[in-house]
Write a structure and sequence with these properties.
Length: 261
């Protein structure tokens, strides 16, 4: 467990699975870092026999249409989350896409840093501090979340979409946190452009988009951004709540993150 992460509520049983999953299992190295090892079975798909990275990505196949039974026989790579995170993401594709929002000072960045530190057990992560940049608060967040102890955790401050793509490529990041996406929006980046230049270029990479909200608590910007993600998560007083998803019904779950002092 991380020093300030604790599962608070876990109500609702496991969701029935209609297909087999390929799970990414953390494997300890001598250095103490963990890298992903795949526990796979050969999928019976029409997409060249390759495991699909996530359940909501477009299928790369020569066929334009498939039988429903073809999809039911596909394998999707998932991560066996624990330490309380499984209460929010019970069946998490490796390339899951999440939107996180909250009013100021409710713990958006603290929560995402904690999750980023946890995800390093499955592969490299890139945390893009596009909004606050590097300052004392950033240093404290990195240290308290344990990111500074992860050799496969990378930090970025760009708010340029082309530079971001280069950084994802160079770091080999398997999950990218953009904190906040509004910095790109302010520079004229549209949902369509982000989908084309980032999401479609890196279909196997997971993304967490931290979003600025209005006084009423709604996302500040084009609502089309919320359609780019699979899951919506909100944070109130350092407690993370699962709102909705495209790949399973929302459980009544929450994770509490101890406020950083």
């Amino acid at each position: 467990m991380f020093p300030y992460t604790q599962a608070m509520i876990a109500v609702g049983g496991n969701n029935p699975q209609s297909h087999k999953n390929t799970k990414t299992k953390p494997n300890s190295k001598k250095s103490g870092l963990k890298s992903p090892v795949n526990e796979t079975t050969e999928p019976n798909t029409t997409a060249g026999g390759n495991c699909i990275g996530g359940s909501t990505r477009p299928l790369h196949s020569g066929k334009r249409t498939l039988r429903a039974s073809d999809i039911a026989n596909m394998d999707f790579e998932t991560m066996p989350l624990d330490e309380g995170w499984e209460n929010l993401f019970q069946q998490a594709p490796k390339n899951m896409r999440i939107a996180v929002w909250a009013k100021p000072k409710n713990g958006k960045t603290a929560t995402c840093c904690s999750f980023a530190s946890y995800l390093t057990k499955f592969g490299p992560i890139l945390y893009n501090f596009a909004d606050q940049g590097i300052n004392l608060s950033t240093k404290n967040l990195i240290e308290l979340s344990g990111l500074d102890k992860k050799e496969n955790a990378y930090i970025s401050t760009t708010d340029n979409i082309k530079v971001l793509a280069e950084e994802i490529e160079s770091t080999g990041a398997q999950h990218v946190f953009i904190d906040m996406i509004n910095q790109y929006i302010d520079h004229g980046v549209t949902p369509h452009q982000f989908k084309k230049e980032i999401l479609q270029r890196f279909p196997d990479v997971g993304f967490t988009l931290v979003m600025e909200v209005t006084k009423g608590g709604n996302f500040k910007g084009n609502q089309s951004w919320t359609h780019l993600v699979d899951q919506l998560v909100t944070i109130e007083n350092y407690t993370t709540y699962f709102l909705s998803t495209e790949y399973f019904p929302a459980p009544k779950s929450a994770i509490a993150i101890k406020p950083i002092k």
